[in-house]
Amino acid sequence: STALVLFRQDLRLSDNAALTAACLAHERVLPVYIHAPSEHSPWQPGAASRWWLHHSLQALRGQLGAQGGDLHLIAGAPLDCLRDLIRASGATEIHWNRRCEPAAIAGDTVLKAALREDGIAVHSHAGGLWSEPWTLATDAGQPYRVFTPYWRKLRARLPDPAPLPAPRAREWLRLPGSLPTAALGLLPAIRWDAGLQASWTPGEAGAQELLEIFADDAVSDYAKGRDLPARHGTSRLSPHLHFGEITPAQIQRTLQDRAARSGSRQRPDLEPYLRELGWREFAHHLLYHFPHTPEANFNPRFDAFRWAETDALSLERWQRGRTGIPLVDAGMRELWHTGWMHNRVRMVAASFLTKNLRQHWRHGASWFWDTLVDADLANNTLGWQWVAGCGADAAPYFRVFNPYLQAARFDPDAAYLKRWLPELASLPAKALHEAWRHPAALAAKGYPAPMVDLGASRDAALAAWGAMPA
Ligand code: FAD
Fold first, then answer.
1. Per UniProt, where does FAD bind (predicted)?
2. 338 is in an annotated binding site
3. Backbone torsions φ then ψ of 123, nearest 5 degrees
4. How far does the centroid of ligand 1 lie from the alpha carbon of residue 21, in Å?
5. How far apart, in Å, are the Cα atoms of 374 and each of 49, 170, 235, 238, 273?
6. Is 234 annotated as a binding residue?
C-alpha cells in the first residue's frame, strides 16, 4: 500500500509523527510539499522566511535523496495537487502534522473533508508543540490569558520527552513532475541575502548543530547570558523551531541528557530555558483561541488609544537603523543583515516604535514579518502586543524602555553597539551610552542626531495612555 506524507511546517525527518506513522503502515511513502503561499493570506511568508524556506526544502530533499527518495515539490491549490498525486500514486492514505495558525486550520479542515469524501483516509498528527493549544484550559474551562498559571499547568504535565527517531520507508516513492526548488521563486531577485547565508544553516542538521553548541556551553549561563546581546547566550533556534526542523521534545531530551551526564555541581538549571519555550507554547495557545489578534488589540481598551499619524519617514528611519538611538539602530541593522534580532533588543526597538514614536504596533509587526527568518504569527503577535501594552499578560503601558540605560546595563562595553554601528566603533563605550552628551563626536562619524527627544516623547506617550477611557 502507498501513503502520502504532506510536509508543511515540519521540515524534518526525526520526531515526525506523520512520517513515522506512514512509514510503519505502508510499503511505499511519497513525501510531498505543496507551495501554496496564498493559503496563508493575509500573512503570506515574508522575504526572509521565503529565503529560509528555499534552503530548508533543499536540505530536506538532500536528506531524502540520500535514502533514494525525494520531496515531491509542486505548486498550486492543495486539493487539486493532492488529487493528482493520489491518482498517480494509488495512495489510499494521507498523513500530516497539524498547525495552529487560523488560516492553516481553516485550510486543513476543508482539505480533510474533501479528501474523506473522495474515500481517502486522512490522518493528522500532533506537530511541533509540547501541547496543542486546545488541550489546556483554566479550571473554569476557559483559555489562559496569563502566562504564569498557564506555564505552571503545562510544566507539571510535560512528560519525560521521547522524541521519535527518523523513520525509513521500505520504499520512498518517486513520481515524475517534481519541481526543482528554484522554480518556486523563493530566493530574492536582487541578492541581498549574503548576511543571511553567512549567519544560518537552514534544515534539520543546522538545527541539531546549534542545539549541540547551546547544550555544550550557553545553556548553563542562560539565565544571565540570555540578556546580553553581544554574546551568543541564547540558542538561536527560533527559525528552526518555526519551520519545524526541530521540536521542543528533542530540545528538552538533549538538554536533559546532557545535564544528567554533567557532574552534579555543574549541572545547569534548565528551567529558565524551558520557560522560554513555554512562552512559545503560550503564544500558540493565544493565537488559537484569539485568532483575530494578529490584526486587532487583544485588550479592546486599546482600540481607543490615540496613535500618532502614520509617518512613512519615521518608519523608514526606524527600519533602516537611522533613528540616532544607538541600541535601536544596532538592533534594526542586525535584523536587516542577519534576519534575526536579540530578544532584549527586539523589546527595546519595539518600545521605541510604539511609545517614543507612537506608531501603531502593526507597522512594527509587519516589518518584522518581512525581515525575520523566525517570523512566526503566534510569537510575533505576542511580542508586539506585549511590548505595546495591549496584549495578553502584557508589559504595563507605562513601562517605556530607556534604550540608553538598557545598553549600559546589558552591553556595558558597547561590543554589540560597535558590531552593528561600525561607524562608531572607535568611540569609547561611554560616548555611545551617553550619546546625547556627545552630539558632535557622533555627527562627525556620520551618525544621525536622535530623531526624537526620549523624555518628551515618553511623556507624550504616557499622556495618550492616560487619556484612554478606562
Ligand atoms: P532562546 O532564548 O534560545 O529561546 C528558545 C526558544 O523559545 C526561541 O527559539 C523561541 O521559539 C522561544 N521564545 C523565546 N522567547 C520567546 C518569547 N518572548 N515569545 C515567544 N517565544 C519565545 N519569536 C519568534 O520566534 N518569532 C517572531 O516573529 C518573534 N517576534 C518577536 C517580536 C517582538 C517585538 C518581540 C519582543 C519578540 C519576538 N519574538 C519572536 C520572541 C523572541 O524574541 C525570539 O523567540 C527569540 O529572540 C529567538 O531567539 P532564540 O531562539 O535564541 O531564543
1. 222, 234-238, 273, 374-376
2. no
3. -120, 120
4. 31
5. 7, 34, 13, 6, 18
6. yes
What element of type H or E holds 97?
strand 93-97
Q: Residues with Cβ within 6 A of ligand 1? A: 226, 234-238, 241-242, 276-277, 279-280, 283, 343, 346-347, 350, 368, 372, 374-376, 379-380, 382-384, 387
- CA-nearest residue, atom 37 of ligand 1: 383
Contacts of 114 (CB under 8 A, 6+ apart): 79
Q: Is 343 a catalytic residue?
A: yes
The predicted-structure confidence for 189-227, as pLDDT tens digits, reads as follows: 888 999 999 999 999 999 999 999 999 888 889 999 999
Q: Give the predicted TM-score (pTM) of the model.
A: 0.98
- What digits encode the pLDDT tens for the residues 129-176? 999 999 999 999 999 999 999 999 999 999 999 999 999 999 999 999
Active site residue 336: no
**Nearest one of 305, 303, 244, 307 to 100, comparing CA atoms:** 244
At the fourth CATH level, the homologous superfamily of domain 2-127 is HUPs (3.40.50.620)
Residue 348 CA to residue 65 CA, distance in Å, equals 44
Report the alpha-carbon distance of residue 182 to residue 71 in Å, rounded. Answer: 14
**135 annotated as ligand-binding:** no
Q: Respond yes or no: is residue 97 known to be catalytic.
A: no
Note if 307 is an active site residue: yes
- Ligand 1 centroid – CA 236 distance (Å): 9
Kindly indicate whether the domain formed by 130-161+204-289 is annotated with CATH number 1.25.40.80. yes
What is the pLDDT, as a whole number, of residue 345? 98
For residue 417, give the C-alpha cell.
553597539
- Choose which residue among 238, 274, 363, 370 to substitute to test ligand 1 binding: the one with the highest number of ligand atoms within 8 A of its C-beta: 238
Residue corresponding to grid cell 568611540:
427
Extents of the domains making up the chain:
2-127, 130-161+204-289, 300-466
Q: Which of 384, 386, 420, 465 is catalytic?
A: 384
Is domain 300-466 classified as CATH 3.40.50.1820?
no
Question: 144 among the known binding-site residues?
Answer: no
**3-state DSSP assignment of residue 2:** strand
Residue 384 among the catalytic residues: yes
**Which ipTM was obtained for this model?**
0.99
Give residue-wise pLDDT tens across range 226-254. Answer: 999 999 899 999 999 999 999 999 999 99
